[in-house]
Write a structure and sequence with these properties.
Radius of gyration: 20 Å
Strand order of the largest sheet: 6-7-8-9-10-11-12
Number of strands: 15
Largest sheet: 7 strands, parallel
Number of helices: 12
CATH topology of the largest domain: TIM Barrel
Number of domains: 2
CATH superfamily of the largest domain: Metal-dependent hydrolases
Structural class: alpha/beta
CATH class of the largest domain: Alpha Beta
Length: about 375
Amino acid sequence: MQECYVLQNIKLVDGNSVDIIVENKKIQNIVPAGTGSSGNVIDFKHKVIVSSGWIDMHVHAFPEFDPYGDDVDEIGYKTGVTTIVDAGSTGADQLPDLINSCKKSKTNVFAFLNISRIGLKRIDELSNLTWLDEVALKKAIAEHQEFIVGLKARISKSVVGPNGVKPLKVARKFSKDTGLPLMVHIGSGPPDINEVLDLLEKKDIITHFLNGKANNLFDKAGKPLPKLLDAIKRGVHLDVGHGNASFSFQTAEQAKAHNIHFDTISTDIYRKNRLHGPVYNMASVLTKFLYLGYPLKEVIDAVTVKAAEWLNKPELGSISPGGLANLTLFSIEDSDTKLMDSEGEERTAEQKIVVKGVVINGEYIEC
């Protein structure tokens, strides 16, 4: 691709068409549709939508780990996602290995540091409290502060073992000592979900908030728990984190009925659920929220504006002249599409989101 090119007659999420001129990897200008003529012109004929580059706040991108691992670009730009955030695949012991593996990739990468120094080397990484090594954690943060955006704690029965809510209390201390917010995975209890909610503060993230497990955020009648409402008022952030076992259509419909909206939509993608479902890719997950009746703008804001705001990197969530060009190009196509949640429930959508390409750090790539 030339140093200067034009994405011509391309639609914004609001439906208006523009030309976007990219020069020297940056957005040089945004002009009325059909008027851009610098360099190579790629005419999308008003059939393709552009947003700022999609951000996936919850992925597993350390290829060495199985089952919770994958290659960065396979879950990044090749699926329309220009920035991924690894959600605690590695702790202090192997964070440098994750960083080194990312250097070979085109996709932009940040990470939550697992509070357990062993990370997902074992999937009961919080069952032994000696693995919650504060010295090692602080050393990793000091050495890689530009890469780390927060701390990850997986607080469910299979991970914490007999320790209940104790690892989250340790995580809370780590958070206060380092100034880094928590991303907290919720799932089967114990600990009880109310114990978890009590410990969350402003800017902490609940991921998997639409899971269908018995220990979830909604009561038997489908109403949000009072402590969830209190957490939202405190500024706790709600993230989807679809994954193999953490998204239920029924729970999502309960949330929407009670006006409990997502802040960010993420995939919790890794090799297994990318290849075999039910995740597949970000476009498939976003399609589920279109199916649920959310407006396109709210869906796309959840993987652009809202994610960029949480990361304190607003430039990643906007299309504006002067910034490094990271864009996602996609269409909304009429097609009966089978969708499956993590409970095995199937629904049929009449429309689907299809990725057409990306601009990744200034480079245009068709998908």
